[in-house]
Write a sequence for this structure.
């Protein structure tokens, strides 16, 4: 049950796939920092740091030793900046073409299913031509479900991050799934910010600036299912062995980086109540009994290296740490990110919540097996 993760990033979809029962055979990502992180967390996966538009699906299938038609699935989240309602929304953004490239590779490799994820803006009328061009590659051989707009908080993740999922099955599979089959189970317990951050260090020293200093003692969060997602359910062959051992033996987690705030900023933050936004930094204080808004990734070096606005901790006068952001996105405490704050937040902000990914891909796994 091999899958290939295109535009893999740090590996939110990859982790969801592995937890659902798939084997992440190959990951393709252009960004070197994200690729390094994926290599750490998925040591048994084959990695290719390259532009997806340069990939030939037929050649890749042969390189992976996969017979025609035997690949279980292709998953991925093509770059979404050109479709985002927050960004410049440029129809001519070259990155928009990568959405089409995803489906080209699907048509060449002919997996049993595909799953593509993107921002809600992809469904805007101005992007109709891009969607139509992409679907031309697969509509003759695949049953394509109606696009599904899904918010992660409905599936047990503490974030209201909403994304559109495009799922298709090879017609020969005769899979009888419909969008309603992916609706959240009534038994899913909603996880709020308070529960998600429970157990992480509350007081963060601003001097914790390097990777070594960012390792701090932490406890497992409350809640059976969320605790399982954060501390347990480690698929065979997934995860950095040393990080997992350190978590289990010493209860240490990485990513607890400090941020230096001036006295003026600290005073301003002290006046911001939960749910309110700082007028200058635009940082919003998280609501303990609410959900985290979408954590944004900022821009890469090729687009100015702008740091995305980080939320304020619900009770402390500081922005959240990368590890807190990871918890809010649904990443396990043993999952590793870049040893720098800037890259860590980009990797987390660009990722699909593994909790949501596991839920969706588990349904697909059961359907095709």
């Amino acid at each position: 049950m091999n899958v290939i993760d295109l535009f893999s990033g740090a590996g939110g979809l990859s982790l969801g796939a592995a937890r659902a029962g798939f084997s992440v055979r190959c990951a393709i990502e252009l960004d070197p920092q994200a690729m390094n992180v994926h290599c750490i967390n998925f040591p048994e996966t084959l990695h290719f740091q390259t532009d997806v538009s340069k990939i030939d699906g037929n050649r890749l299938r042969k390189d992976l030793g996969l017979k025609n038609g035997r690949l279980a699935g292709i998953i991925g989240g093509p770059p979404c900046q050109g479709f985002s309602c927050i960004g410049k929304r440029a129809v001519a953004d070259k990155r928009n073409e990568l959405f089409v490239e995803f489906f080209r590779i699907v048509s060449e490799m002919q997996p049993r299913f595909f799953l593509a994820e993107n921002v809600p803006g992809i469904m805007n009328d101005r992007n109709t031509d891009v969607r139509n061009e992409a679907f031309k590659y697969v509509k003759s051989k695949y049953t394509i479900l109606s696009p599904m707009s899904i918010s992660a908080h409905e599936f047990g993740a503490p974030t209201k991050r909403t994304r559109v999922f495009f799922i298709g099955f090879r017609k020969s599979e005769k899979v009888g799934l419909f969008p309603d089959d992916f609706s959240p189970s009534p038994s899913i317990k909603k996880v709020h910010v308070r529960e998600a951050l429970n157990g992480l260090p509350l007081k963060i020293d601003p001097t914790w600036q390097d990777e070594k200093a960012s390792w701090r003692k932490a406890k497992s969060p409350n809640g059976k299912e969320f605790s399982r997602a954060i501390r347990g359910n480690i698929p065979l062959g997934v995860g950095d062995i040393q990080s997992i051992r350190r978590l289990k033996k010493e209860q240490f987690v990485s990513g607890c980086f400090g941020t230096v705030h001036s006295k003026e900023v600290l005073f301003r933050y002290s006046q911001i109540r939960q749910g309110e936004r700082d007028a200058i930094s635009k940082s919003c204080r998280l609501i303990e009994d609410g959900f985290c808004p979408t954590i944004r990734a900022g821009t890469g070096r090729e687009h100015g290296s702008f740091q995305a606005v980080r939320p304020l901790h619900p009770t402390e006068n500081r922005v959240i740490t990368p590890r807190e952001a990871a918890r809010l996105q649904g990443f396990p405490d043993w999952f590793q990110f870049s040893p720098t704050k800037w890259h860590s937040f980009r990797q987390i902000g660009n990722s699909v919540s593994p909790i949501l990914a596991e839920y969706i891909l588990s349904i697909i796994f059961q359907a095709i097996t």
About this structure: The mean pLDDT is 91. The first strand starts at residue 2 and ends at 6. Residues 354-368 form the longest helix (15 residues). The CA atoms of residues 200 and 232 lie 16 Å apart.
